[in-house]
Amino acid sequence: MSGAWLSDAAIARLRLAAELPELGSSRYEVRALLGRGGMGSVYLAHDTGLGRDVAIKVLHDPAPGSALLARLQREARLLARLEHPGIVPIHDLLHLPDGRVAYVMQHVQGARLDQHLAGERGLEARLRVFLKLCESVAFAHDRGVVHRDLKPENVMLGRFGEVLVLDFGVAHAAGEPLERAGTVVGTQRYMAPEQARGEVERIDARSDVHALGRILAGMLAGAEPPANRPLRAIAAKASADDPAARYPSAAALRSDLEAFLSGRPVSALPETPLDRLARLYRRHRVAVWLVAAYLAMRGAVLLTTGR
Amino acid sequence: MAGGDTEIGGRDDRFPSTRMSAVREAASGDEACRQRAIGTLIAAYWKPAYKYVRLRWKADNEQAKDLVQGFFAGALGRATFARYDAGKGSFRTFLRHCLDDHVRDQRDAQRAGKRGGGAAVLSLDFAGAEAELAHLEPRDREDLDACFQREWVRQVFALAVDALRDLCAAQGKQGHFELFRRYDLEPDPGAPPSYAALAAAAGLPVTQVTNHLAWARREFRRLVLDRLRELTGSEAEFREEARALLGITFEEPRP
Ligand SMILES: Nc1ncnc2c1ncn2[C@@H]1O[C@H](COP(=O)(O)OP(=O)(O)O)[C@@H](O)[C@H]1O
Ligand SMILES: [Mg+2]
Q1: Residues B49 and B130 grouped into a single domain
Q2: Are residues B96 and B193 in the same domain?
Q3: Quick one: which of A8, A191, B27, B113 has the fewest CB in 10 Å?
Q4: Is residue A158 over pLDDT 60?
């Protein structure tokens, strides 16, 4: 009645085989599943033409003429418009034989932000990552694009320490039609109250600032040394319930954090004399730390390259 | 939906399949229909059931064989299926509870000096199932619920592989199955073949290899889904299993 016993490894392969998108006679060979989100799966593939690995995002289920289909196509075009070192570069748009659309992007060889944080407790290092994230988001805002689904699962760190924003699947570009009022777009844990209420016409750059605030709060938690009052105030201001109480832009959030890092007062926290004292002490320490870090880096460069 | 997943409004769409739920057919329908449905359920469940009875109830192989025979041949009556409420949980869990009840009843009867009912003998490869026990991992012996589920998945995939082999034979596509076997089912563990290597070995252009593999995978996927459709009692359960097994989610309607 049934054939040979299937090992766990065989089942894993069969599962993947049943799911693998069919790329027909394109120059890409799909190799493995890289990750999965609410909309699609991302596969590692090999570009046989150029001899390099790429990542291909495909929708979960073939449904000709579906809304998701148009969404992926839009996502691809948005990504193409957002050429920036902090946003994953897109290479190609594919039409699969089964009617689905897929896009080809750079294969990021690194960790997702949530995975990265598990192995990086250092506060300064975490903040540097966050600053880069703000920079990329600010760039998207500059181009009229609101991401609407910023969360650690949608951010990756590359091999060279670059921070890449992914997944513009539910992003909105200025001038595009909005969803029907009441549609909830985003991820519960990170979404702004106006998003959770489905007030689609009120969602703007500040909704992304809210998500950034939530991400920052997550990065401060468990950091070493523990985050102090001004830092926590920055995260709280960014993720305030009222959009008007938040930073007006990702760039503003970023510059307040930079002020903190260089020992200047932050806009998120009116200083008490005690705060001021603590800040000045820290400022001094930060300078020492920076010099040490610089010397360590020079040392490392000397050791590895001899230059 | 879990708090960590992206939302894009509600979702509702049916996955097309021609198969009927054997779980529902076993509860009603005419007798011929019912027997066919029970045959389908036995094919998917006897092996997990046998392994489960061996582990959970510490039955030796002869006892386990009798208990499983008795369960599928006798205890799975119309009344049993009528008791199943798809709203309350998966059919798989329900079936496992029925199996526990059956084992308990049989042991009570034995203690009272009664003999178990002389069940019809099903021709199942119990020796094969016994040999497979050796493949179980220590974790399987600790969490028997998960073990029962994993063994069920294994059996569903094995049935789908058999069905694909039969389908290929019937359509003269043995070459397609061979590619599927070499690339997806049993690749050389050291060096999984590239499409180019498979093409060279089969004397086909690479595009043929990709086409044939794509066809076999698509059919395999359909065959797995057909089996899931048969083995689940409701649309919701079917979707749940399809998502768990193949990572398939269902499409939102246009807002
Ligand atoms: N370019 C890439 N390189 C490596 N992994 C990626 C890449 N893009 C996405 N992934 C992985 O796939 C997952 C899902 O991708 P994402 O675009 O977020 O899909 P979704 O829209 O379904 O959430 C990500 O969380 C990440 O782990
Ligand atoms: Mg995502």
Answers
A1: yes
A2: no
A3: B113
A4: yes
CA atoms of A48 and B194, how far apart (whole Å): 11
Interacting residues of B214 by C-beta distance below 8 A, sequence separation 6+: A22, A24, A97
**Which residues, at least 6 apart from B120, have a Cβ–Cβ distance to it below 8 Å?**
B69, B73, B74
pTM to 2 decimal places: 0.68
Q: Across the interface, do B161 and A61 touch by the CB < 8 Å criterion? A: no
Residue B254 covered by a domain = no
Q: pLDDT, tens digit, for every residue of B236-251?
A: 888 888 878 876 654 4
C-alpha A41 to ligand 1 mean position (Å): 7
Q: Considering its fold, how many domains does chain A have in total?
A: 3
Within a domain: A5:
no
Same domain, A61 and A202: no
State pLDDT tens for residues B67-124.
998 898 876 677 777 788 878 888 899 999 999 999 998 888 888 776 555 556 677 8
3-class secondary-structure state, position A156: strand
Q: Please tell me whether residues B154 and B221 are part of one structural domain.
A: yes
* Domain count within chain B: 2
pLDDT in tens, A89-113: 999 999 877 677 899 999 999 999 9
What is the structure's pLDDT at A63?
52
Tokens of B183: 């690339």
d(CA B75, CA A236): 62
Question: Which domain, by its residues, includes A306?
Answer: 275-307
Interface list for A 67-106 with B (CB within 8 A): 67-68, 71, 97-98
Neighbours of B154 (CB within 10 A): 22
**Using one digit for the tens of pLDDT, what is the confidence trace for A167-196?**
999 999 999 999 898 889 899 999 999 999
Whole-number percent of chain A with pLDDT over 90: 61
* A48 half-sphere exposure, CB direction, 13 A CA radius: 13
Pick from A7, A17, A24: CB nearest B184: A17
Residue range of the domain that includes B194: 144-249
Both A158 and A21 in one domain: the answer is: no
